[in-house]
Specification:
The chain is of the alpha/beta class. Helix content is 23%, strand content 32%. The longest helix has 15 residues.
Length: 487
């Protein structure tokens, strides 16, 4: 099959980008999860950036359909821009309903083109080495998908892993090399069962990557999980366009069952097939899997450059700022960020989510945001926080502007350290250059705009009694953020 044939039949990448990556805390936070972190797996790109480049128009694929939420929409948009892609469709889910309704939405959009659409569904946060080989595997799977089969990619186990779901292959497809009917789905097994699966050779890890004929998928979902399809159809009918994003109808989408595509369809249908994905793959679902995927030294250690190792074995170290020294450690995970430090036994890496749950229960914020908080206009970092003051560094991108806003509980002093800012206070506009400052009293309406060609950097000193991001009353906002969005 040639690339021209594939383009005629329309292969649509569908990227699911709503995961929060709690088992990679403190690197991954709910407002900036693992798929957006650059260099997480040793690459200079983020996992989402790598995913976007895996199935590009240059390899014969249509622009992607990306399912995400309002919190991540500008992060996704920036990744698309950095990848140099055009025509991508970003669909915003108003609530999390798991993968079946999201995939139904994507299939309906692809099928609406009127051509023979096949969707390639993949998470945004997997690591794969061998992009061209992956594209060829997808093209091979698409041939089988067009015979009314749902094709699941499986990965040959390399160890008795207890953190993955497994699929047992059945009889081979006649005339389709390497393809089998799905015999059975199995949950994350015990260590003994995982060893037996590995020894059998009939079991593959469920990669969560699927190649599906859009029309066949919709018809089969209507038989086995009709509510998911009906809710997806209704949410698309009531969808609106906001700054180029597609916002699904919220009341309609909320009626969808919260169910995975595996439970909703693949475990019930007779149309499921499996093909091996013979590539270096990881779902980067824990620090143990990240350690396995990353480069190692002769002692099995994986560490960032600002690390000193002495007599360490099989130790994983990631530090975003500080020097970390590990002396005589073995099978440890050490992750240091400016506001949180994790030290864990490698065997407990799947349990990091329990720490995140504790942080939520105790009302702490470290599970939500890093010290650096990203916004559609740039980012800010908290430098110091005291009883009646807070100091931040703001980075405003060229062409960006903050909302027109006011605060009830704090005044602000802005000192520009780089670039030139256009500052509006009430009805007055003024240009504030490097080494100049302005003072904004509580309850004064104000805005900052960067109309220049270089980023504006400023130090913001807040004085008051409360510094929460919810003390932002917005007027005009070019990013159309909803009132409940503190970003």
């Amino acid at each position: 099959m040639t690339i021209l044939d594939v383009r005629h039949d329309r292969l649509f990448p569908v990227i699911l980008c709503g995961g929060k990556g709690t088992r990679l805390w403190p690197l991954s936070r709910s407002m900036f999860p693992k798929q957006f972190i650059k260099g997480l797996d040793g690459s200079s790109d983020s996992l989402l950036g790598q995913t976007l480049m895996r199935l590009t128009p240059a390899r014969g694929f249509e622009p992607p359909i990306i399912l995400t939420n309002s919190d991540y929409r500008f992060l996704v948009e920036e990744e698309i821009s950095e990848a140099g892609l055009s025509g991508a469709r970003i669909v915003l889910e108003p609530s999390s309903r798991n993968t079946a309704p999201a995939i139904a939405v994507a299939a309906i959009l692809a099928a609406a083109t009127g051509l023979d659409a096949v969707i390639v569904v993949m998470p945004s946060d997997h690591a794969i080495r061998g992009d061209q080989a992956f594209a060829e595997a997808v093209r091979s799977a698409s041939t089988l998908a067009r015979t009314q089969r749902h094709v699941l990619f499986g990965v040959h186990p390399t160890e008795p892993h207890t953190g993955y779901g497994y699929i047992r292959r059945g009889e081979a497809h006649v005339g389709v090399a390497g393809a089998f009917r799905v015999s059975e789905f199995l949950e994350k097994p015990s260590a003994d069962k995982a060893r037996s699966y590995l020894e059998s050779g009939d079991y593959l890890w469920n990669s969560g990557i699927f190649v599906l004929h859009a029309a066949t998928l919709i018809d089969d979902l209507k038989r086995h999980q009709p509510d998911a399809v009906h809710a997806a159809e209704a949410a698309l009918v009531e969808a609106s366009t906001d700054l180029g994003f597609t916002r699904l109808g919220a009341p309609e989408y909320s009626q969808a069952p919260s169910i995975s595509i595996d439970y909703a369809l693949f475990e019930r249908t007779s149309l499921a097939s499996i093909m091996p994905l013979d590539l270096d793959w990881s779902d980067i679902g824990s620090f143990a899997s990240l350690h396995d995927f990353a480069a190692h030294d002769d002692s099995g250690n994986s560490a960032t450059p600002n690390t000193i190792l002495e007599g360490a074995e099989n130790t994983f170290v990631r530090s975003t700022r500080n020097v970390v020294a590990a002396l005589g450690t073995k099978d440890l995970i050490i992750v240091d960020t400016p506001d949180a430090l994790l030290v864990a036994d490698r065997s407990r890496s799947q349990d990091v989510g329990k720490i995140v749950a504790r942080l939520k229960t105790e009302g702490r914020k470290e599970h939500e945001q890093h010290v650096r908080n990203y916004r559609p206009w740039g980012y800010f970092e908290t430098l110091a926080l005291g009883p009646r003051f807070q100091v931040k560094r703001l980075h405003v991108k060229p062409g960006a502007k903050l909302s027109m806003q006011m605060h009830h509980h704090r005044s602000e002093h802005w000192i520009v350290v780089n670039g030139t800012a256009k500052v509006t206070i009430g009805e007055i506009d003024k240009l504030v250059r490097e080494n100049e400052s302005v003072y904004i009293f509580a309850t004064q309406w104000h805005r900052l705009e960067n109309s220049g060609m270089v980023p504006v950097e400023l130090i913001e000193v807040q004085i008051g009694t409360y510094f929460g991001e919810d003390d932002i009353i917005r007027g005009d906002d070019i990013y159309n953020r909803l009132p409940e969005e503190t970003k």
